[in-house]
Amino acid sequence: MGNENLKYYDGSKAFGIVILTVALLVFLAGISLISGSDIGLLILMIAVIVTLALIPLSLRIVNEWERVVVMRLGKYVGILNPGTSFIIPIIDYTPFTIDMRVRSTPFNAEKTLTKDNVPVDVDAILFWQVKNPEEAVLNVQDYMQSIQLASQTALRDVIGKTELSEMLAGREKIGEEIKNLIEERVAGWGIEAISVEIRDVTIPTELQQAMAKVATSDREKQARIILAESESLAADKMLEAAKKYEKDPYAMQLRSLNMMYEISMNGKNLMIFIPTESKGFSIPLPFGVMGLENYSSTKGKGRGKSKVR
């Protein structure tokens, strides 16, 4: 599909024919003037007029991003290169100018059923480029309209083979499938499909509401599961801390004092007393160092179990 096999038009031959025609007219006019005939002056005027007419008719200026197709009496003869070129007036003509730059063509499919029978509206853009202007002119009547129609039919075919969830989650994959299908259909047109971008997929309002409810339910389910897992972890940590406090009464005393400090730092003159049956373990009556010594001695003598009563 490249440009290496293109047939280019040789404008130097056409320029030579134009110059030869003008030179012949000037030569005939010069001979007539030398012979002293009035026909020489007439031929000279005709040569000037023909020269002024032939140059605009034969001159073609081609932009860098364009390619111009040259036809000779209905037959294709080649492509004009960018720059200034000459053609044979009247015999050669240039009916088509091809833009070789990358183009974007929007296309869509409305109310098209997916594989799971859901009607959707899909908007997409095709980026494409003419690689062979000869094939684009000779093998298809209107390549711009044809590429758009081929894109629409390819989009409908892909939608009919795809489920809605796959279309919403894998737009890049859908675009690649559409591009490959377009390339198969435009083979021989001298056109390359670069990429297909899915801009929007619209589904019915009722289905949108149902999908939103499903998504909300899933989020609530995940939130409840995470909250339950957090409560379980917190309970495990609390049990682990309780075992440490049971082994070391000093740690329990420090924790009690820290709780009193945190309560006093809330900006209000508030003190909360937590009722307890423990002797010396309550927050309002910390047993202090002497209480700890008595507690340790009692525990050492085996008079009872160190537990909270």
Biggest β-sheet strands, sense, barrel: 3 strands, antiparallel
Whole-number mean pLDDT: 77
Query: Which percent range describes the beta-strand content?
Result: 15-25%
The radius of gyration over CA amounts to: 46 Å
Helical/strand content category:
alpha+beta
Cα distance, first to last residue?
92 Å
What is the global morphology?
A: elongated
> Under CATH, the topology of the largest domain is which?
Tetrahydropterin Synthase, Chain A
Q: In total, how many domains does the architecture comprise?
A: 4
Q: Percent of residues in helical segments?
A: 40-55%
Write the layout of secondary structure elements.
Elements lengths: L10 H24 L3 H21 E4 L3 E7 L2 E6 L2 E4 L5 E8 L3 E11 L5 E12 L2 H6 L4 H18 L3 H6 L1 H15 L5 E12 L2 H43 L1 H16 L23 H14 L8
List descriptors.
alpha+beta; about 300 residues; about 20% strand; 8 strands; about 55% helix; 4 domains; disordered C terminus
Provide structural commentary:
- By secondary structure, the protein is an alpha+beta fold.
- It contains 9 helices and 8 strands.
- The strands form 3 sheets. It has a 3-stranded antiparallel sheet with strand order 3-2-5.
- Strand 6 (about 105-115) and strand 7 (about 120-130) form a beta hairpin.
- The radius of gyration is 46 Å and the shape is elongated.
Structure in a nutshell:
The chain is 53% helix and 21% strand.
